[in-house]
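User: I'm curious whether this sequence folds into something compact or stays loose and floppy. Could you predict its structure so I can see for myself?
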Amino acid sequence: MSAIITLLPLFAPHGTVIENPLTLLHLRTFLPKITFTHMFDPKNKDHLMIGGIADDEAELIPLLSIQDEENINKEDVPKELSILPLRNTVLFPGVVIPITVGRDKSITLIKDAYKSNKIIGVVSQKDTNIEDPGFNDLNKIGTVATIIKMLRMPDGNTTIIIQGKRRFSLVEVTQTEPYLRAKVEPLAESKAPVNEKEFSALVDSLKDISLQIITQSPQIPSEASFAIRNIESPGFLINFISSNMTLDVSKKQGLLEIVDLKERAKKVLEYLTLELQMLELKNQIQSKVKVDLDKQQREYF
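Assistant: Here's the prediction. I'll summarize afterward.
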C-alpha cells in the first residue's frame, strides 16, 4: 500500500458527500459497482458528491477550510464522553473516515449516540488483539468525533462515517457498562505559524512528496493529486496525510500526540520521505526484473 491511500470497504448511498477526497477515491476503487456521477457538486466546488445507488437522501459535507478548522478548535468539548475504542486506526481532527463497528458494546454506544447529539470520543487501543478493551487498554489521547452517518451493511455489520473534531486526554472512567464513558480534558490545538518560512517550506515539502508518491503509484487514482493540491489549511493537510499514510497504529498515535504543529509536520515529512524512498526502490527493482525478463525472452526466442 502507498503512503497516501488505503482501501476502505464502505457502502455509500446515493447523494452521500464525503469530506475526505481520498475516501471518495477509496470507494471508487474498492466498489466498482457504484457509479460516481459527480466528483464535485456542480453548485459548490468545495463539496464532493457520490452518486449511483438508489437513495434520494442527500447530505453535503464541505471540505475543511482554514475557517472551518478554527471553528472546530473553538467548539466546546463535553466534560464526559462515551468512548469508542478503535482497533486498527487513529482518528485525526478534521478527517472523515468510515469505521465498521462489530462489538456489541460499540454497536450499543453508536445507536445511543446517533439518537442523541452524535458526539463520541474515539481512542485507539494499545493492543489490537484485545477484544473487549478496558480503560487501561486505551491510549490516553483521543479525538472527539461527530457521527455523520450510520449505515447498515449487506453482511449485517454496521458502518459509521465519523469526522474528527478536537483532541482530548482521558482523565478517569465513569462507566463500564453497557459501554465505556469517561471524563475528558480538551487539548489546545497548536496554530500554524504565520509568515514563517521554515513552516511554509515544510508544508510545501509535504505536498511535493505526497504528489511524487501519487505519481509513482499506479494504483492511486490521479484525482488524489487534486485533493492534495486543494487543501488550504496547513493543519488539516498534516492531519489528512497522517491519517492516510501507511503506518502502524502506534506511529499514527504518536503523531496525534505531538502538540506542536510544526514538530508534527516534521515527523510526518520524515515518514513520507522514507515511504517515497521505499517506493522508488521497489519501482527500480520491478523495472530491473522486467528488463531482465524481457532480455531472457528475446534470447530464448
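Summary: DSSP finds eight helices and six strands in the chain. Residues 3 and 274 are 10 Å apart (CA to CA).
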